[in-house]
Structure formats: structure tokens, C-alpha cells
């Protein structure tokens, strides 16, 4: 049975929400010249800590706050290696992801015996009887507040100017009196908070529980979306919507009799194949931030 269009749009907006949070978080860190490959682990940690604290406190808001703090700490942790110590950003980011995922899985097995986490308080949908508008509060925040705020922040504020300056030419920014290290730490902290918000949305809104591999590679998708968007806010949001639209479409095709013979694994891979294709197209003649992946040392 075919789903109505409004149901697919509703699912698209819900699916896109963690991608929008994660992509915007990655975007601000990369604009500052730091490739944060710890995003997958940060989203994973936000998802786990949010559920853990929400379950123990009985408050979804306290759980969300704990997840945001976890994201900030994860971003600063990456900063210690990439900004202060000048470690290779690929190694630091992947190491952070492995550490956070392994720590959360260990804690989950230790506390819950390897099974799924019991249901915890979660956000309820607003306007449940209104098509398309029936969304979680965090979805409204992502599209109506966070994305516009990030657009203005990076384009029209002193902080955004400093972030772009240290990402394009840290030597000139330093000569102008801008602290490269402080600006990059601030970008990593803000980015980590947004990434963790994306992970927390999965557990505190969509599911109300935590299972292993819950982020399912969304962090890596966010990195691709940032490159696809050429480090611009609006295209990054549209890229998240594109991925979510294809994901909603493949769910519709799975239950359509005409496509019953197509392996489900191939259908599930369709959104990721679209992202890869878009990345290949957008990656031609791509201009990276001038100091991308480059540690900065004052001379």
C-alpha cells in the first residue's frame, strides 16, 4: 500500500534532522580548518549519554543537556590533539570515534547486559494531527532556528569572521590579533555540541532507547554533506533533505509490489549511493579552506 505524500514528507523531515545537526556541526569545525572525523563517535556518545541521563533523571531535557555537554567535551578532546599537539587530524578524529563508540558499547553492555536500553522519557511530537507539521521540537529547532542562526553566525558576526579567517589563512589571522587556537577550540566545542544534538535526537525523540550501532554511519554522511555543500550552510541543509528524501523513497519502494524482486540491501544502500554520486559531482574543481587539515604553529 502506497504511503501518502504528506507521510513521506513528514518522514523526510524527521530523518533529516540528525543530519542537519551533524552537518552544521562539522561545517563550523571545517571552516576553522579542522576536519573532525570524530563526528561519528560524538553523535554516538550524544545518543548514549542522552538516554542514560534521561533514564536516570526522568527528564528528557536533562538528558539532552548531558548529551550537549558530552559533545562539547568530545570537540575539545579532538582539539587537544589537533590544535594543541598538532597531531594528524585523520588519526585524531578516527581515534576519537573509535574511543567513544567502544566506551559507549562497553558501558551499555556493563549496565544493561548487552540488551537494548529500556525505554526512557522522550520528546513527543508537536501538532500530531496536522500533516507534515507533526514533528518533534528538535526538528523545528534544527530547521527554523539552528540552521538560520548558523548562517548568520558564519556570515555576519565577528565570531564567524574569525572562524573563516583562521580556516583560510591562520598566519594572517594571527598577525591581525586573532587567537587561532582559541577560535579553533571554540569552533570544535560548538561543532561537537551540534553533532551530539544530532545523536541525541535519534534516541530522545525518534526511538526513546539505545541500541548498538544506532547512528548507522550518519556521521560519515554528514562529512560528505559538508563537502557536497562546499562549506555553505543552506546547501548542507538541502543535502540532508536530499538524503532523507531518498531514504523515505526507498522505504516506500520496499513495500511497493513492483519492486519486490530487488534485494532489500540494495534498496537500503540507495541513499548512500546518491550521496556518493552527489559528492563525486560536487567534488570537481572543489576549493577547500586554505588551512584545511593544516596545524598552525606560531613562529
Estimate the mean pLDDT confidence: 88
The level-1 CATH class: Mainly Alpha
How many domain units? Answer: 1
DSSP helical segment count: 11
Low-confidence stretches: none
CATH topology-level fold name: ABC transporter involved in vitamin B12 uptake, BtuC
Helix-strand pattern: HHHHEEHHHHHHH
What portion of the residues fall into strands of 2 or more residues?
A: under 5%
* Total strand segments: 2
Helix share, percent: over 70%
Account of the protein in words:
The chain has a single domain (5-282), classed as ABC transporter involved in vitamin B12 uptake, BtuC, CATH 1.10.3470. 71% of the residues lie in helices and 1% in strands. It has 11 helices and 2 strands; from the N terminus they run ααααββααααααα. A hairpin with an 8-residue loop joins β1 (125-126) and β2. The model has no long low-confidence stretch (mean pLDDT 88).
Write the layout of secondary structure elements.
Elements: H1 5-31, H2 39-57, H3 60-84, H4 89-112, E1 125-126, E2 135-136, H5 137-156, H6 158-168, H7 170-175, H8 180-207, H9 218-228, H10 233-254, H11 264-282
Antiparallel strand pairs: 1-2
Helix pairs in contact: 1-5, 1-6, 1-8, 1-9, 1-10, 2-3, 2-4, 2-8, 2-9, 3-4, 3-8, 5-6, 6-8, 9-10, 9-11, 10-11
Write a concise synopsis of the structure shown:
This protein is mostly helical and 299 residues long.
Task: Supply database-style keywords.
single chain, 299 residues, mainly alpha, ABC transporter involved in vitamin B12 uptake, BtuC, two-stranded antiparallel ribbon, 2 strands
Amino acid at each position: 500500500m502506497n504511503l501518502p505524500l504528506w507521510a513521506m514528507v513528514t518522514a523526510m523531515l524527521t530523518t533529516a534532522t540528525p543530519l542537519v545537526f551533524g552537518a552544521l556541526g562539522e561545517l563550523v569545525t571545517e571552516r576553522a580548518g579542522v576536519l573532525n572525523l570524530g563526528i561519528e563517535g560524538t553523535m554516538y556518545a550524544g545518543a548514549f549519554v542522552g538516554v542514560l541521563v534521561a533514564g536516570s533523571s526522568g527528564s528528557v531535557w536533562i538528558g539532552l543537556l548531558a548529551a550537549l555537554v558530552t559533545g562539547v567535551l568530545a570537540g575539545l578532546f579532538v582539539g587537544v590533539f589537533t590544535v594543541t599537539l598538532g597531531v594528524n587530524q585523520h588519526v585524531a578524529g578516527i581515534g576519537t570515534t573509535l574511543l567513544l563508540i567502544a566506551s559507549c558499547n562497553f558501558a551499555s553492555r556493563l549496565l544493561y547486559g548487552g540488551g537494548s536500553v529500556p525505554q526512557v522519557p522522550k520528546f513527543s511530537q508537536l501538532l500530531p494531527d496536522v500533516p507534515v507539521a507533526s514533528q518533534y521540537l528538535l526538528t523545528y529547532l534544527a530547521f527554523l532556528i539552528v540552521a538560520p542562526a548558523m548562517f548568520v553566525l558564519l556570515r555576519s558576526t565577528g565570531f564567524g569572521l574569525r572562524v573563516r579567517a583562521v580556516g583560510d589563512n591562520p598566519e594572517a589571522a594571527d598577525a591581525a590579533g586573532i587567537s587561532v587556537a582559541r577560535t579553533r577550540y571554540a569552533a570544535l566545542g560548538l561543532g561537537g555540541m551540534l553533532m551530539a544534538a544530532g545523536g541525541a535526537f535519534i534516541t530522545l525523540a525518534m526511538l526513546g532507547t539505545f541500541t548498538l550501532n544506532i547512528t548507522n554511519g550518519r556521521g560519515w554522511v554528514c562529512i560528505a554533506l559538508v563537502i557536497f555543500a562546499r562549506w555553505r550552510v543552506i546547501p548542507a541543509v538541502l543535502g540532508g533533505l536530499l538524503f532523507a528524501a531518498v531514504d523515505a523513497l526507498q522505504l516506500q519502494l520496499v513495500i511497493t509490489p513492483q519492486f519486490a524482486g530487488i534485494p532489500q540491501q540494495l534498496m537500503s544502500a540507495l541513499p548512500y549511493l546518491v550521496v556518493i554520486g552527489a559528492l563525486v559531482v560536487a567534488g570537481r574543481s572543489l576549493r577547500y579552506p586554505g588551512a584545511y587539515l593544516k596545524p598552525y604553529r606560531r613562529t
